[in-house]
Amino acid sequence: MEKVGKGDLSQKVQLTGRDELRLVGDRFNAMVEQVEKAEQERITGLRRFASSMQRAQEEERARIARELHDDLCQRLSGMKFRVEVFGRGGCTG
User: Fold this and answer.
1) CB within 8 Å of 3: residues ≥ 6 apart
2) What is the C-alpha to C-alpha distance for residues 31 and 15, in angstroms, rounded to an integer?
3) Of the residues 58, 68, 82, 87, which has the maximum number of CB atoms within 10 A of its CB?
4) What residue spans define the domains of the chain?
5) DSSP secondary structure, 39-93, as one string
6) Are the C-beta atoms of residues 36 and 9 closer than 8 Å to each other?
């Protein structure tokens, strides 16, 4: 029980008799198995969450990159148009 209390969920109570103490041991082992299963589910959930967060960050980075690229292209096209107009002596602005 001490080892389980310290986090070692691989420990089981050795059962030998058929008395009330055996019943306590059975219940203790069942409890340890439930705790171990819950811990595995928690770890799986955390891994899914971390993966989901990483995917969301990558999507946001891609979105920002597209916005920066599109905005830059639009500004450069506008500047090119102005240069062409000024090059022809068409507009003073």
Assistant:
1) 11
2) 15
3) 82
4) 2-87
5) HHHHHHHHHHHHHHHHHHHHHHHHHHHHHHHHHHHHHHHHHHHHHHHHHTT----
6) yes
Q: Which of 35, 37, 5, 22 is nearest to 13 (CA)?
A: 22
Per-residue pLDDT of the chain (93 residues; tens, 9 = 90+): 778 778 887 877 776 767 878 888 888 889 999 999 999 999 999 999 999 999 999 999 999 998 888 888 888 888 888 888 887 765 555
Residue 13 Rama label (left phi>0; alpha psi -120 to 50; beta): beta
b (16+ CB within 10 A) / e for 2-33 = eebeeeeeeeebeeeeeeeeeeebeebbeebe
Question: Tokens 């799986």 belong to which residue?
Answer: 44
